[in-house]
Amino acid sequence: MTLLDISGVSKRFGGLQALQDAHLSVPAGSIVGLIGPNGAGKTSFFNVMTGLYPADSGTFILNGVPYNPSAVDQVLRAGIARTFQNIRLFKEMTVLENVMVGRHTRTQSGLFSTIFRTSFNRSEEKQVIADAMQLLAYVGIEKEAQQISKNLSYGSQRRLEIARALATEPLLLALDEPAAGMNQTEKKDLQLLLQKIRDDGTTILMIEHDVRLVMGLCSEITVLDEGRVIAQGPPESVRNNPAVIKAYLGVAHHE
Amino acid sequence: MTLFLQNKHLQLLALAIMLCFAPWLCMMAGGNYWVRVLDFALLYIFLALGLNIVVGFAGLLDLGYIAFYAVGAYCAGLLASPHLINSFAFIREAFPAGLHTSYLMILPLAALIAGLFGVLLGAPTLKLRGDYLAIVTLGFGEIIRIFLNNLDRPMNLTNGPKGINGVEAVSIMGTSLGKQIQFLGLSIPSVILNYYLFLVLVIGVVIICIRLQDSRIGRAWVAIREDEIAAKAMGINTRNLKLLAFAIGASFGGVSGALFASFQGFISPESFSLSESIVILAMVVLGGMGHIPGVIFGSLLLAVFPEFLRSTLVPLQTMLFGHVVIDAEVIRQFIYGCALILVIRFRPHGVWPKTRVV
User: Fold this and answer.
1) Is B108 a domain residue?
2) pLDDT digits (tens, 9 = 90+) for B9-41
3) What is the pLDDT of residues B135-185, one digit of tens each?
4) Cα B92 from Cα B87, distance rounded (Å)
5) I need a labelling partner for B17 at 20 to 30 A (CA). Which of A34, B125, B209, B240 fits?
6) Within a 10 A sphere around the Cβ of A212, how many other Cβ atoms?
7) Cβ–Cβ contacts within 10 Å for residue B151, how many?
């Protein structure tokens, strides 16, 4: 079953055609990779898909239901949670509080119940803390729950961003270069974490540069170049696709 | 002593006793004048806590906050003074006994109307941040003041720069807080009665602020302050939450404005100038943005310190030089400026910022 089905996406920034008729489909329960050379339009695709930039055209279907990527918070409510290429944590908040913010859409306490601290408010607050602690344990940073998030190590910050996104209980987790800046051990651990998340039922779409990680994790890969999809398929076929090799390595000039 | 340091209830009890006796001590030490200073300090705490929601929690720099104070003050001024009766015949006919609206009505009304004004200011400025937002809010504050200054024509709504006289004091169960009362053989002056009223309301506001801070709403505000895009990516409706911050902050301003009007008995647009907005912002920033005890401390400091200077500098100079060399007001401004620069340089998060386990 296809969880995410996007087609005909175009996006123009002034004179630059960032995306042209791009398409992508993500089967439920899988990890799909979105790769391409620098400037190919991967992050633009993510930003359009999650409502950060308005699309010029395109159809967006999540879980069989069309969604309109016009506002970031509405896309999240539709079921896509994302992380950012340059980590965007709430820096002055603690690690725990960051994940608690992720529970925002899954909780209801309003102004009245907050000011009068109703029993509903108190039990919900307790539940939010418990849920957030559980997620921190899930990604393996529960010991750092009370730290200010900006003081975490780079790898832990990435994990925290993933935990925060998972706290929204998304259908699809969209990761923008989750392994950027990680060393080999951290990448190994990340790979295990992402596999665990997939096995527990959350579908993952990721932009990644590390070929070994992508080939090892993804069941399907989409390759973008200059805003167009040039290849799509399982890792083996993509690796041997001449168009992909050309995009990454260029072609020899014969004079 | 260790028992005292460990037991939160004992500390609270000590604080409560201190707060109860503070005005009497002030009166013994310096008479009604110092109790008045204390009353105003409480009003400033009220205001600063409201502004702290907008600036400290949600990170929206508001330089026109005093406008909401003005809205609240004029609510009380119009509804509890003879002004409207004197200037409009139809109101005089409708209320032949005079307009004596109860503060039980005025305070919620002031909160509501100021809150509406907060939304009115918030709605067009949703996409603005930092300096740009500050400029627009500054303009808003001035617009309100100028309106109040000029709405004596074509019909006399605000009495213009002459202000509104004879605003009634708060009365509780038929007892006016505007005059001294006899209680168990003790005569309690009006300033002390008002002190207790303000104290109760300020404690209420502190509780509301603390509850908001550690809540779903408070966390969403801080998330917006820290990174608006990431907050949206967590599904937070930033528009509604920003408007909520503006509205709640403004309603606190409105209530304290109404209290101010009842306490002074007289209001004029002069009291709501830009410099007042800046003083309140300075209280929030100096104390520790987003940190409730810090904000309270900052307001106390900036409300009491100028009065302290005023009362010591003149006698000090006459003692040293035989006459006043520099006006106390000038020295106050100077010290104020120096203090702000020093705080920004050495304690950028305020004198008493939030401390956290690292």
Assistant:
1) yes
2) 888 899 999 999 999 988 888 888 999 999 999
3) 999 999 999 999 999 999 888 999 999 999 999 999 888 788 888 888 877
4) 8
5) B209
6) 12
7) 16
Nearest chain A CA: its distance from B229 CA (Å)? 8
How far does the CA of residue A83 sit from the closest CA of chain B (Å)? 8
Identify all chain B residues contacting A126, using CB atoms and an 8 Å cutoff. none
Reference A58, options A84, A19, A3; nearest CA is A19
Helix extents (H) in chain B: 2-6, 8-30, 32-51, 66-79, 83-87, 89-94, 103-122, 130-150, 190-213, 216-226, 228-233, 238-264, 274-287, 292-321, 328-346
B226 close to A91: Cβ distance less than 8 angstroms: yes
pLDDT at residue A83, rounded to an integer: 96
Strands A80-82 and A172-176: parallel
Domains in chain A, ordered, with CATH?
A: 1-79+170-255 (3.40.50.300), 93-165 (no CATH)
Backbone angles phi, psi at B142, to 5 degrees: -70, -40
Question: Does residue B343 fall inside a structural domain?
Answer: no
ipTM: 0.93
Reading the block at residue B226, the tokens are: 């820290």
Neighbouring-strand partners of residue B171: B176
Does the pTM exceed 0.80? yes
Q: Around Cβ A77, how many Cβ atoms within 10 Å?
A: 15
What are the distances in angstroms from CA A121 to CA A112, B204, B209, B215, B224? Answer: 10, 19, 15, 9, 22
Residue A109: list chain B partners with CB under 8 A: 215-217
* pLDDT tens digits, B230-285: 999 999 999 999 999 999 999 999 999 999 999 999 999 999 999 999 999 999 99
Number of domains, chain B? 1
d(CA B263, CA B39): 9
In a domain, B60, yes or no: yes
Q: How far is A6 from chain B (nearest CA, A)?
A: 19
At residue A63, does pLDDT exceed 90? yes
Residue A198 token pair: 């997939």
Instruction: Please report whether residue B148 resides in a domain.
Output: yes
Q: Tell me if A92 and B215 make a contact (CB, 8 A cut-off).
A: no
- Give the mean pLDDT of B90-105: 88
Neighbours of B345 (CB within 10 A): 8
